[in-house]
């Protein structure tokens, strides 16, 4: 593991997903999934999200589309919050999910809109 890339990834991961979310993921890691958590932090967040060629907002928008198409509701919830943190607006999220529905199918769009509305409602309560 490259400690510099890992530490950079940890900083980015916390900035996008929130410190509490990341700390919980790391705190609950065990012998089985700790290597995976380290890999996610170093590779996804450090080596990829840490690249300078795309702004975080753009990366968030791409993630929303890809995660919606892959039907990963837990990750979609986390990345919806991260996208808002990175400056993606609710209007832009709507348009991303319209695009998802068009190109990946209406069921993917329906689920994405439903999950986004739930996340927005949760956030609006706080």
TrEMBL record:
<feature type="domain" description="Carboxymuconolactone decarboxylase-like">
    <location>
        <begin position="36"/>
        <end position="118"/>
    </location>
</feature>
<dbReference type="Pfam" id="PF02627">
    <property type="entry name" value="CMD"/>
</dbReference>
<dbReference type="InterPro" id="IPR003779">
    <property type="entry name" value="CMD-like"/>
</dbReference>
<dbReference type="InterPro" id="IPR052512">
    <property type="entry name" value="4CMD/NDH-1_regulator"/>
</dbReference>
<dbReference type="InterPro" id="IPR029032">
    <property type="entry name" value="AhpD-like"/>
</dbReference>
<protein>
    <submittedName>
        <fullName>Carboxymuconolactone decarboxylase family protein</fullName>
    </submittedName>
</protein>
